[in-house]
Amino acid sequence: MNILKNKIEGDKKTIASNFVSLTVLQGANYILPLLILPFLVRTLGSEKFGLVMFAQSLAVLLKIVVDFGFTMSGTREISLARNDKKKLSEIFCAIILIKTGLIIVGFIILFFIVELFTRFTVDSEVYYLSFGIVIGQAIFPVWFFQGIEKMKFVTVVNIFAKIIFTVLIFLAIREESDYILVPIFNSLGFIIAGLLGLFLSLKYIFIVVPRISLVKRLLKESSSLFFAKFASTLYTSSNVFILGLFTGNTIVGVYSSMEKLILAVKNIYTPLYQAMFPWLSNQTSEVKRSTIKKLFPFILSLGVIITASILIFGETMLTFIYDDELITSYVSVFKILSFISIFSGINMLYNNLYLPSIKKYKTRMLIFIIGGIFNLLLVFILIKQYGVYGMASAVTITEFLLLILGFYYFNKYSSQKKEII
Fold first, then answer.
1. What's the whole-model pTM score?
2. CA-CA distance, 119 to 164, in Å (whole number)?
3. For residue 179, what is the DSSP state?
4. 3-state DSSP assignment of residue 231
5. Residue 91 and residue 373: Cα distance in Å, rounded?
6. Cα–Cα distances in angstroms (integers) from residue 228 to residues 10, 273, 403, in the given order
7. Tens of pLDDT along 248-273?
8. Are 397 and 378 in contact (CB under 8 A)?
9. Are 357 and 72 a contacting pair, CB within 8 Å?
10. How far is CA 348 from CA 27, 35, 226, 273, 401, in A?
């Protein structure tokens, strides 16, 4: 009885420690950029800021290709093998090998996009320099540290890299023509973090040549997660990219300035879900169900408070943060996006925590594919009629659809007597 009690207490402490580390990490990931955003908007102007954000949105799309779902599947594999150093090392090396190949694939895709389309060729250096984000994210083994539940390493390394990026921005960016330095510094921060992460991971593993059968299995099992993640980009990162194709850099700059704020809010939930995922994956079906139900009212209440605050004080917030009349004049876009605070928190509870914990990867993939296609169709319909307002509406409606689908499948699987654990 005492052993069981001590184990439960140990699990709680581990989750709490990882939650604190992830919260600090997310805070650094979004607070530091939020300090930079107003400075960049005022210094570079909406057009050049929009160009930088447009290039960054393309890099994020390529990052999804290189990640290939390992943020989730890799975490689970590492979590299950963490007590076997030989197996742990082989899984680690296999994932790194796969990611190395995917970096090459990602760059080839970027090359053809930039060289074949004039829209990208005219500012080719911005897009190539932004690819450093893809490299840095690919080599940083966040899935490894999350799997062994050592998130303090991730926090320290990422904050260190973000501080370097922030300091360089404030020291070097002085006028509009300095916009080219933003992707350089951004990529530099990600690559430094990635290299440090790889170095720290060597403390827990040794280098080994992975079996081809393992590489194939990891690719196969992660493919559904990849398609799910790629589909999800059709209603997240790709929206800035699509908006840039239909409008110009100035409108992209306006929309991005607000989307960054909403993303900061949306990612408030991420540390909790990431910290709980390794633990929840090893629990019984009943514990999984009850945990999700207990979290629901807290997530809903937090979302309602945030949305209400933006609806009431949205104009004041934009004026205070950016002090830009053009951005503030689009406050209605900000208010439309505010409902994502409610919808995304709950849909992530089901789709990013519960479904992966019961290994319903294909169901999750189906949900995101439906959401992605729905968003894509809605964007093309609304953006032609309502421009940036149509874009904001499409994104918000899609988040609500994902909530409905996640809730449906949660009820479906949680009512079953037997569940894959």
1. 0.68
2. 31
3. G
4. helix
5. 33
6. 33, 18, 15
7. 778 888 888 888 888 877 777 877 78
8. yes
9. no
10. 19, 27, 16, 8, 12
